[in-house]
Amino acid sequence: MISIRKIRRGGRLILATIGLAGALLLAPGVQGTAAAEAFRDLQSARWAEDGIYYLTERGTVAGYGNGIFRPQQSITRAQAVTYLIRELYADEQLQATGQGFSDVTESHPFYREISIASRVGLAGGLPDGTFRPDAPVTRGETAALLTRAYTIAEGNATVRLSDITGHWAEGNVRHLASSGLAGGYPDGTYKPGQQVSRAEYAVFLSRVIRHQRAEAIEAANWNELLKLMTLQEKAGQMLMPDIRMHRGQPTWTAHEGTAATIRNHRLGGMILFDKNIANLRQLVELNDGLQRQADDIPLLLGIDQEGGVIKRIPGGTNLPGAMALGATGDDHLSREAGKLTGEELRALGVQLNFAPVLDVNSNPANPIIGIRAFGSEPQLVTRMGLAFMDGLKDARVIGAVKHFPGHGATAVDSHLGLPVVSHAKERLEQVELVPFRAAVRGGAEMILTAHVACPALDNTQVRSQKDGSLIYLPATLSPRIVGGLLREEMGYEGVVVSDAFTMKALAEHFGERDAVIRAVAAGVDIILMPEDLTGAYEAIIEAVRAGRIQESQLDAAVNRILQLKHRYGLFERPASLAERLDQARQIVGSPQHRQVERRIAEAAVTAITPQADLVTLPSNDGTVIAVAAPDEARAEQIRQSVAGLDLRGVEVKTMVIGQQDSQTIRRLLDGADAVIAASYQFRSLPQQYNWPGYQRWIDEMNRQDLPYVLLSMGNPYEWQHLRNVRSALAIYGAESPNVAAGLRAAFGQIPVDGTLPVTRSFQPH
Q1: Claim: this prediction has a pTM higher than 0.70
Q2: What does the H/E/C string look like for 701-733?
């Protein structure tokens, strides 16, 4: 017997002429990429539906048109070998050479397949020189065909079939039956001479293919699995959409809508948002349900849990954020932060965290990075960021470092427009690229690309679909940046994921299908959050068929994705849902994690003004503390946090800093013994913030000689906008642990030990 190399068809179309009575319709690929043909005559073969549709979706079989499959019709020898040749060989890899069968001439619709099957030893002719293409195939012949086509080791199951002993196909049948791939009848027989129907053959073949896939997965043989995957499956592995809403309602459960989304696009993963999360139990059950809806390749479930302002975990430990960690200067704390974040995500069924941020926030006017960065110095960002990444890895959670090649120098939010980093290559090498080069050397396994244009790295210009202007190609779509700089020059071998395709930096300037093709061609492995999921899926498939993208590029991308899933245990048998729920309850928001949260927040509190000038707020019985904040919600948050300090006899009154004049401010402060003035400039340009209003408050508090603390809860650049601030603390976030730590410092309960992680362009006035 000749060994047959198992090469998947790759979704390519094999054409044949329809001429024989009973020949099956070819050209399944023209039926669309999102769903297979639906058959209306399977009522008598419900038991075979899964196998029939599985092979139809693979492009191996098709119906007769008009929804007809004819499941009970006997399958012929010609049809049986044609199924296998389609499954095993791409059309351009083996050509018909002619085998001299008297009843299979070149005009026969299956001449090519029969010729190839004979040449490779899959099926031969009869002694009289015929092939008998229209003769029905028996159950014994089916076993022989399948065991010749695929290497199937004998299984452990005991075979008790009374009528196969001595039959010429006994060994073939035993191999299938012992592996659970073929069964007998209630009377203990196999009936090897009985004809096989089209439905039965589809079940036999689909079982064998799935068995081969399972063996490849068990052996972590990803090259073999790739051979058994369709082009559609490969495209799906490269997509990670969000599933926030379904029929106008938040997606909190794995329902038919999510099942259809996964099934119709062969999805490799999903990203979850706060709209998918109600509570701990619900999230664990959602993730469990989503994985159950996946096929034999599990989903990679991701989330944005940077800590601080970017958080998703319900009731979980909300770490104070990257810049707070930067202010501690303690890389051990950063690794601990990454580890506990990973432990909580893993317990919830999430394997991928879109963090840490490796952007160097060198531009104080950056509206989107700011406190999400560890700081403004590349060495600090590198040290703290890689420690956080390693902490995630310690917890067996993938960290997607972002936003390559650097978003910290921009003054435009890529959610709202296309930012351009105009620095020279030398400057980029000295600042922006430093953390990413270190991450590659340090074993980063996923890097997220930014929708940021860097002309010094790629000065290619394209025509914007928004207004027809020429724009620089953003990094996500740049072969020079992704394929050249990251892959070739830096030597990165891990997975590349794009930033969200819903962001206006791409959505406004490029048609999504074209952007998807450009990104994949540039070297991006996973397209994150396409606006039109079906369109993105079809774009990849059609680009391969049209030759715009080589299928070998998809193979390389999917191989990296499969290896990553394997390294992080996604193919391992999960614990029961009850066990995982119990584990999540013990881990998420645990007292040990809360202690780390508090340690980071307290160690991060930083004096913006000189330490010697810091004011300790009074807390004597009868003290009135005025809390002035940018809005009522922040004011109330601070009031509640002060109440949590258990300062007996202290009264708190709240107010909002607006456009008041000095007289109004004086009236509002009447009777106050001290003031907490809170600022929160984030997600906006500094010039858009109410700095003139704050200055009037500062001037009035100074005039009255009131003790006060300016509590910087956002980007800590107040010294660039305010004059004569006497006492100011930076806490790097408006989250509960940050605020509580800042207030403890303001009232003298803890020391102020943080170091400002951003460079002062000039000292405070």
Answers
A1: yes
A2: HHHHCCCEEEEECCCCCHHHCCCCCCCEEECCC
